Amino acid sequence: MAGQSDPHLSIFSPSEVEFVAEDEIVEIVPNIRMDALNMICGDFGPFFPQIPTKVPLWLAVALKKRSKCTIRTPDWMTVDRLTQVLEAERESPREFQPLPFHYIEISKLLFDHARDDISDAYLVRSLIEDIRDVRFHKVETGLETISGRTHAVKLKNLSAMEVNIVRPFMVRTLQAFYKHDSAQMIQQADNIGSRATLVTDRGPRVSFPCSYGFNLLADSRRLLSPSKCESKMLRTK
After folding, report:
1. Where would I find the DNA replication complex GINS protein PSF2 N-terminal domain in this sequence (predicted)?
2. pTM (2 decimals)?
3. Three-state SS sequence of 43-81
4. pLDDT tens, 71-97?
5. Which domains does the chain have, with CATH numbers?
6. N or C: the chain end with fewer CB closer than 10 Å?
Protein backbone atom coordinates (compact mmCIF):
# COMPACT_ATOMS: atom_id res chain seq x y z
CA MET A 1 0.00 0.00 0.00
CA ALA A 2 1.13 3.53 -0.70
CA GLY A 3 2.72 5.27 2.22
CA GLN A 4 3.94 2.09 3.92
CA SER A 5 7.42 2.39 2.43
CA ASP A 6 10.17 4.29 4.22
CA PRO A 7 9.12 7.98 4.12
CA HIS A 8 12.77 9.06 4.38
CA LEU A 9 13.65 7.32 1.11
CA SER A 10 10.68 7.81 -1.18
CA ILE A 11 6.95 8.40 -1.27
CA PHE A 12 6.27 5.04 -2.94
CA SER A 13 8.32 1.88 -3.21
CA PRO A 14 9.35 0.69 -6.71
CA SER A 15 6.75 -2.08 -6.56
CA GLU A 16 4.05 0.46 -5.73
CA VAL A 17 5.04 2.65 -8.67
CA GLU A 18 4.99 -0.43 -10.88
CA PHE A 19 1.50 -1.28 -9.60
CA VAL A 20 0.25 2.14 -10.70
CA ALA A 21 1.93 1.72 -14.10
CA GLU A 22 -0.05 -1.47 -14.75
CA ASP A 23 -3.07 0.69 -15.60
CA GLU A 24 -1.32 2.01 -18.71
CA ILE A 25 -3.02 0.97 -21.96
CA VAL A 26 -1.21 -1.33 -24.39
CA GLU A 27 -2.22 -3.17 -27.52
CA ILE A 28 -2.52 -6.94 -27.70
CA VAL A 29 -3.32 -9.45 -30.43
CA PRO A 30 -5.56 -12.19 -28.96
CA ASN A 31 -5.46 -15.75 -30.23
CA ILE A 32 -8.81 -16.65 -28.66
CA ARG A 33 -12.43 -15.60 -28.93
CA MET A 34 -13.80 -14.14 -25.71
CA ASP A 35 -16.66 -11.90 -24.67
CA ALA A 36 -16.09 -8.42 -23.34
CA LEU A 37 -14.76 -8.08 -19.81
CA ASN A 38 -16.67 -5.62 -17.65
CA MET A 39 -14.27 -4.20 -15.10
CA ILE A 40 -14.55 -1.41 -12.55
CA CYS A 41 -11.99 0.53 -14.55
CA GLY A 42 -13.86 0.00 -17.83
CA ASP A 43 -15.03 -2.51 -20.41
CA PHE A 44 -12.48 -4.33 -22.56
CA GLY A 45 -13.20 -6.55 -25.51
CA PRO A 46 -14.81 -8.50 -27.03
CA PHE A 47 -11.73 -10.37 -28.17
CA PHE A 48 -11.32 -12.01 -31.56
CA PRO A 49 -8.32 -13.97 -32.85
CA GLN A 50 -5.69 -11.88 -34.66
CA ILE A 51 -7.65 -8.65 -34.22
CA PRO A 52 -5.68 -6.09 -32.18
CA THR A 53 -7.37 -4.51 -29.19
CA LYS A 54 -6.31 -2.24 -26.35
CA VAL A 55 -6.31 -3.30 -22.71
CA PRO A 56 -4.57 -2.27 -19.47
CA LEU A 57 -1.07 -3.58 -19.03
CA TRP A 58 -2.07 -5.78 -16.09
CA LEU A 59 -4.70 -7.53 -18.22
CA ALA A 60 -2.27 -7.93 -21.10
CA VAL A 61 0.25 -9.57 -18.77
CA ALA A 62 -2.44 -11.86 -17.33
CA LEU A 63 -3.52 -13.01 -20.80
CA LYS A 64 0.10 -13.38 -21.91
CA LYS A 65 0.86 -15.66 -18.96
CA ARG A 66 -1.99 -17.90 -20.14
CA SER A 67 -0.70 -17.84 -23.73
CA LYS A 68 -3.90 -16.19 -24.91
CA CYS A 69 -2.33 -13.19 -26.65
CA THR A 70 0.81 -11.47 -27.80
CA ILE A 71 1.67 -7.95 -26.66
CA ARG A 72 2.58 -5.38 -29.26
CA THR A 73 5.64 -3.36 -28.40
CA PRO A 74 4.84 0.35 -27.93
CA ASP A 75 6.02 2.68 -30.68
CA TRP A 76 8.61 4.28 -28.41
CA MET A 77 10.24 0.89 -27.64
CA THR A 78 11.91 0.50 -31.02
CA VAL A 79 15.65 0.64 -31.61
CA ASP A 80 15.38 3.65 -33.92
CA ARG A 81 13.22 5.68 -31.55
CA LEU A 82 15.29 4.88 -28.47
CA THR A 83 18.52 5.69 -30.30
CA GLN A 84 17.14 9.12 -31.20
CA VAL A 85 16.07 9.72 -27.60
CA LEU A 86 19.47 8.70 -26.25
CA GLU A 87 21.33 11.00 -28.63
CA ALA A 88 19.00 13.90 -27.79
CA GLU A 89 19.45 13.27 -24.05
CA ARG A 90 23.22 13.43 -24.39
CA GLU A 91 23.12 16.57 -26.53
CA SER A 92 20.79 18.45 -24.17
CA PRO A 93 22.31 18.44 -20.67
CA ARG A 94 19.54 20.65 -19.26
CA GLU A 95 16.50 19.09 -20.92
CA PHE A 96 14.69 15.77 -20.64
CA GLN A 97 13.24 14.17 -23.73
CA PRO A 98 9.53 13.31 -23.68
CA LEU A 99 8.91 9.67 -22.84
CA PRO A 100 5.92 7.85 -21.35
CA PHE A 101 5.49 8.76 -17.69
CA HIS A 102 5.94 5.08 -16.74
CA TYR A 103 8.50 4.11 -19.37
CA ILE A 104 10.77 2.40 -16.81
CA GLU A 105 8.00 0.28 -15.30
CA ILE A 106 6.36 -0.56 -18.64
CA SER A 107 9.62 -1.73 -20.16
CA LYS A 108 10.43 -3.81 -17.07
CA LEU A 109 7.05 -5.57 -17.14
CA LEU A 110 7.33 -6.29 -20.85
CA PHE A 111 10.85 -7.65 -20.49
CA ASP A 112 9.73 -9.82 -17.57
CA HIS A 113 6.58 -11.25 -19.17
CA ALA A 114 6.68 -10.65 -22.94
CA ARG A 115 10.32 -10.67 -23.91
CA ASP A 116 9.60 -12.89 -26.92
CA ASP A 117 7.27 -10.21 -28.33
CA ILE A 118 10.00 -7.53 -28.39
CA SER A 119 12.15 -7.18 -31.50
CA ASP A 120 15.87 -6.83 -30.73
CA ALA A 121 15.08 -7.21 -27.04
CA TYR A 122 18.71 -7.13 -25.91
CA LEU A 123 19.49 -3.90 -27.78
CA VAL A 124 16.23 -2.27 -26.70
CA ARG A 125 16.95 -3.08 -23.07
CA SER A 126 20.48 -1.72 -23.34
CA LEU A 127 19.23 1.54 -24.87
CA ILE A 128 16.60 2.00 -22.15
CA GLU A 129 19.21 1.46 -19.44
CA ASP A 130 21.53 4.00 -21.09
CA ILE A 131 18.71 6.54 -21.33
CA ARG A 132 17.83 6.00 -17.69
CA ASP A 133 21.46 6.47 -16.60
CA VAL A 134 21.86 9.68 -18.61
CA ARG A 135 18.65 11.13 -17.20
CA PHE A 136 19.58 10.27 -13.61
CA HIS A 137 22.96 11.92 -14.14
CA LYS A 138 21.15 15.06 -15.29
CA VAL A 139 19.02 14.99 -12.16
CA GLU A 140 22.07 14.67 -9.91
CA THR A 141 23.83 17.51 -11.73
CA GLY A 142 20.76 19.71 -11.43
CA LEU A 143 20.43 19.08 -7.70
CA GLU A 144 23.95 20.39 -7.17
CA THR A 145 22.81 23.85 -8.28
CA ILE A 146 20.21 24.19 -5.52
CA SER A 147 20.95 27.03 -3.13
CA GLY A 148 19.26 28.87 -0.30
CA ARG A 149 17.55 31.14 -2.83
CA THR A 150 15.75 28.22 -4.49
CA HIS A 151 12.04 28.21 -3.66
CA ALA A 152 10.83 25.76 -6.32
CA VAL A 153 12.27 23.39 -8.88
CA LYS A 154 10.72 22.66 -12.27
CA LEU A 155 11.81 19.48 -14.02
CA LYS A 156 9.89 18.82 -17.22
CA ASN A 157 9.37 15.36 -18.74
CA LEU A 158 10.54 13.38 -15.71
CA SER A 159 9.14 9.88 -15.39
CA ALA A 160 7.24 8.49 -12.41
CA MET A 161 10.21 6.55 -11.04
CA GLU A 162 12.53 9.54 -11.44
CA VAL A 163 10.06 11.83 -9.67
CA ASN A 164 9.63 9.26 -6.91
CA ILE A 165 13.37 9.21 -6.26
CA VAL A 166 13.94 12.97 -6.48
CA ARG A 167 10.84 14.27 -4.70
CA PRO A 168 11.63 13.34 -1.06
CA PHE A 169 15.16 14.72 -1.33
CA MET A 170 13.90 17.93 -2.92
CA VAL A 171 11.23 18.41 -0.27
CA ARG A 172 13.66 17.94 2.62
CA THR A 173 16.24 20.22 0.98
CA LEU A 174 13.82 23.07 0.34
CA GLN A 175 12.35 22.69 3.82
CA ALA A 176 15.83 22.98 5.31
CA PHE A 177 16.59 26.10 3.27
CA TYR A 178 13.25 27.63 4.22
CA LYS A 179 13.80 26.85 7.88
CA HIS A 180 17.26 28.40 8.01
CA ASP A 181 16.19 31.45 5.98
CA SER A 182 13.04 32.14 7.99
CA ALA A 183 12.79 35.35 10.03
CA GLN A 184 12.52 33.40 13.27
CA MET A 185 15.74 31.49 12.61
CA ILE A 186 17.55 34.68 11.59
CA GLN A 187 16.36 36.41 14.78
CA GLN A 188 17.54 33.48 16.87
CA ALA A 189 20.92 33.56 15.14
CA ASP A 190 21.21 37.30 15.83
CA ASN A 191 20.34 36.78 19.49
CA ILE A 192 22.94 34.05 19.82
CA GLY A 193 25.52 36.30 18.18
CA SER A 194 24.65 39.14 20.56
CA ARG A 195 25.01 36.90 23.59
CA ALA A 196 28.35 35.66 22.33
CA THR A 197 29.54 39.25 21.95
CA LEU A 198 28.48 40.08 25.48
CA VAL A 199 30.34 37.09 26.86
CA THR A 200 33.57 37.70 24.98
CA ASP A 201 33.68 41.48 25.46
CA ARG A 202 33.34 42.15 29.17
CA GLY A 203 35.13 45.46 29.27
CA PRO A 204 37.87 46.44 31.76
CA ARG A 205 38.33 44.48 34.92
CA VAL A 206 37.01 46.22 38.02
CA SER A 207 38.21 45.64 41.59
CA PHE A 208 35.70 45.69 44.40
CA PRO A 209 36.82 46.17 48.03
CA CYS A 210 35.99 43.30 50.30
CA SER A 211 34.88 43.78 53.88
CA TYR A 212 37.54 41.31 54.94
CA GLY A 213 40.31 43.53 53.59
CA PHE A 214 40.94 41.71 50.24
CA ASN A 215 40.36 42.79 46.61
CA LEU A 216 38.12 40.52 44.49
CA LEU A 217 38.30 40.64 40.68
CA ALA A 218 34.79 40.44 39.28
CA ASP A 219 35.57 38.13 36.36
CA SER A 220 38.06 35.68 37.85
CA ARG A 221 36.72 35.47 41.42
CA ARG A 222 40.21 35.04 42.79
CA LEU A 223 41.75 36.61 45.92
CA LEU A 224 44.59 39.02 45.27
CA SER A 225 46.89 41.08 47.50
CA PRO A 226 45.93 42.47 50.95
CA SER A 227 44.01 45.73 50.93
CA LYS A 228 45.23 49.10 52.25
CA CYS A 229 43.15 48.63 55.38
CA GLU A 230 44.94 45.40 56.23
CA SER A 231 48.34 46.97 55.50
CA LYS A 232 47.59 49.74 57.97
CA MET A 233 46.54 47.19 60.56
CA LEU A 234 49.79 45.27 60.09
CA ARG A 235 51.90 48.44 60.40
CA THR A 236 49.99 49.48 63.52
CA LYS A 237 50.82 46.19 65.14
Report:
1. 13-71
2. 0.68
3. EECCECCCCCEEEEHHHHHHHHHCCCEEECCCHHHCHHH
4. 999 999 999 999 999 999 999 888 899
5. 14-177 (3.40.5.50), 208-237 (no CATH)
6. C
